[in-house]
């Protein structure tokens, strides 16, 4: 027993957090490019365009755009079977609405995929990962149905250009972030629920049509959704706390319900009825949602929440979900995230019980402050412990519970800027990058102790955890 022989071990990054080169080779601005850096607990600022004197970490990030060959070679040294990455939409269509794609951007990703194949690494590509082209804001971004067509034009370009090179696709990163951080999810700078749910509807429709298009262009294509793995426990056995927890999970899971089942669940439609929210449904849309169900469900997992009746639940804002509760049974990361390996097994079972389709964990990792010793070594035993305990729980879900897990891509295998704060000191990687919170450094890559540990994990196919 153990992990399947074809299990996809790897790591995951996002273009806006690793590439840099934000205007190189014809790239246009994205929503990520107008988010400043901040610190823990302080929201990142969204500016009106690029403002002189402010620091935007996505502009240089860790230079992966120019270092990708070196970085992928290091991934290969660890034995990666796959590399989950994203394509920057504004590299392909700089403003999002052009009729002709940017050839320089397409050529860059050809080179990235060719490098992956050189090392036998399977690309797993996120089509839109928190970086809507800024040029689409003139339409209202995802609040406007026209953006569905712009997205599908982008998808058609990718599916045709990279046919035979990419077969695993994710339509939107953490699509349920539309309920927590709508700017990141789709360039929606509003807390109005009607606006968010309209934008989410358009993303559901775009994803469903993209799934069908991907299958038509290449029958080998497998298209998944990507769920931000928010899950919660009740604060007590009080039935009211249990109901609040159920309400929390409905706010999150309705996204995967639509994408995996092909229709809006009754509980969400009743909520819309109560709140006076009207979906912009046109003739044929509901059939498109049914026909465009995803092939698999991928998700991120970092922590669990505690929910109850005694503190207000805050969903919206750049700092994300706040419940007001701390789980006394868990250790906390340096950034206040509860470390809960058993929660991963719980979520794997919850999602498989609900949808009965293959699952893939495409983000899981520990953000921490790493110290470089005088000899250049980086001893990150805390990261090894974190990942080891999570992988053990994933293994139980496979071996004991029978959950079909396709793969695991740790976030992020190389240090990248943090999405929540834009910091560099919140490091996740097996590979250290010499860049600080202000973008200064040599950009030199250095292996941490966890690099060698993960290499052994993959070599043993999860036998040595």
TrEMBL record:
Keywords: Glycosidase, Hydrolase
PROSITE patterns: GLYCOSYL_HYDROL_F1_2
Stretches of the chain forming a coiled coil according to its record: none
Keyword Metal-binding part of the UniProt annotation: no
Pfam family, any one: Glyco_hydro_1
Molecular functions per Gene Ontology: hydrolase activity
Xref: InterPro entries: GH, GH_1_N_CS, Glyco_hydro_1
Signal peptide as annotated in the record: none
Record-stated family: Belongs to the glycosyl hydrolase 1 family.
Listed name of the protein: Glycoside hydrolase family 1 protein
Species of the source: Metabacillus rhizolycopersici
């Amino acid at each position: 027993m153990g992990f399947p022989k074809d299990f996809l071990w790897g790591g995951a990054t996002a273009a806006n957090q690793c590439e840099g080169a934000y205007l190189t080779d014809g790239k246009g601005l994205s929503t990520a490019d107008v988010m400043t850096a901040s610190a823990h607990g302080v929201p990142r600022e969204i500016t009106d365009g690029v403002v002189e004197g402010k620091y935007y970490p996505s502009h240089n990030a860790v230079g992966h755009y120019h270092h990708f060959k070196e970085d992928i070679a290091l991934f290969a040294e660890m034995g990666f079977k796959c590399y989950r990455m994203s394509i920057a939409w504004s590299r392909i269509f700089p403003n999002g609405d052009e009729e002709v794609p940017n050839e320089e951007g397409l050529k860059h990703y050809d080179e990235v995929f060719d490098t992956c194949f050189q090392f036998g690494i399977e690309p797993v590509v996120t089509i839109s990962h928190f970086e809507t082209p800024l040029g689409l804001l003139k339409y209202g971004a995802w609040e406007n149905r026209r953006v569905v067509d712009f997205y599908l034009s982008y998808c058609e370009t990718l599916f045709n250009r990279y046919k035979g090179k990419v077969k695993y696709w994710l339509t939107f990163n953490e699509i349920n972030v539309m309920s927590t951080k709508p700017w990141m999810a789709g360039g929606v700078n509003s807390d109005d629920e009607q606006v968010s749910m309209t934008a989410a509807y358009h993303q559901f429709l775009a994803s469903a049509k993209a799934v069908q298009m991907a299958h038509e262009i290449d029958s080998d294509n497998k298209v998944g959704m990507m769920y931000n793995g928010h899950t919660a426990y009740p604060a007590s056995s009080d039935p009211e706390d249990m109901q609040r927890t159920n309400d929390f999970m409905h706010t999150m899971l309705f996204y995967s319900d639509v994408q995996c089942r092909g229709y809006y669940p009754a509980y969400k439609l009743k909520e819309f009825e109560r709140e006076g929210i009207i979906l912009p449904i046109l003739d044929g849309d509901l059939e498109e949602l049914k026909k465009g169900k995803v092939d698999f469900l991928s998700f991120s997992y970092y922590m669990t929440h505690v929910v109850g009746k005694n503190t207000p639940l805050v969903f919206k804002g750049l700092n994300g979900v706040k419940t007001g509760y701390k789980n006394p049974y868990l250790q906390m990361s340096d950034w206040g995230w509860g470390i809960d390996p058993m929660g991963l097994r719980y979520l794997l079972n919850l999602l498989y019980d609900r949808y009965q389709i293959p699952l893939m964990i495409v983000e899981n990792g520990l953000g921490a402050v790493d110290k470089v010793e005088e000899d250049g070594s980086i001893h990150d035993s805390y990261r090894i412990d974190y990942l080891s305990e999570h992988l053990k729980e994933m293994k139980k879900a496979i071996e004991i519970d029978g959950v079909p897990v396709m793969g695991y891509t740790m976030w992020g295998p190389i240090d990248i800027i943090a999405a929540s704060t834009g910091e560099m000191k919140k490091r996740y990687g097996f590979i250290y990058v010499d860049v600080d919170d202000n973008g200064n450094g040599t950009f030199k890559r250095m292996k941490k102790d966890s690099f060698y540990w993960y290499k052994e994990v993959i070599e043993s196919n999860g036998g040595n955890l």
